[in-house]
Amino acid sequence: MKRNILSENMRRFGTKNLNEQSEPRDPKSKIMPIMGQESTGWTVEFRKGIQCFLNTAGYRDNQDKQLEVDGKIGNYPHSKTAQAIFNAQEALNARNKDPESGKNPKLIYPIDGKWGQDTYDALSAEEKKIFHDCIEQYQGGFMNTIKTWFSL
Which of 39, 57, 55 is nearest to 116 (CA)? Predict the structure, then answer.
């Protein structure tokens, strides 16, 4: 049985934007932790998966450079990864905007350089597949599941 790592992380921390953290983090919380380097809520492997996705999907930092996949995500504008997330959010909002109404049904708000459910929801189906592949690559897939089971 294959576990869906993304779903487990989203279920564990809720589905709101990561920049909001006014309630304590617990499995029943509707608020996700801040996706910063200092965050202890998401594993280093999961953050590496996000960096892998940004590189693979073509999102870059403010110097138009690929990210180092090190699992460190700080705060915008000082973090290269946060810069890439910010640039991705701007590009996704521009791409998803309805030219007739000017409205964006998949609005990422605020554009803040923090990875959250709004950012994930704005991805195309192809980008979501890339994202899942990167998460799977860094989470270790089936072997990681076996390790998790034996560590319980």
Answer: 39
CA distance 101 to 55: 32
Residue carrying structure tokens 């450079």: 65
Residue with tokens 């279920």: 11
pTM here is 0.67
DSSP H or E stretch at residue 49? helix 44-57
Lowest mean pLDDT across 32-46, 60-74, 128-142: 32-46
Q: Residue 152's pLDDT is what?
A: 47
Helix (H, G, I), strand (E, B) or coil at 56: helix
Cα 43 to Cα 46, 82, 139, distances in angstroms: 5, 17, 9
Render 78-107 in DSSP notation, one character per residue: T-HHHHHHHHHHHHHHHHH--TTT---TT-
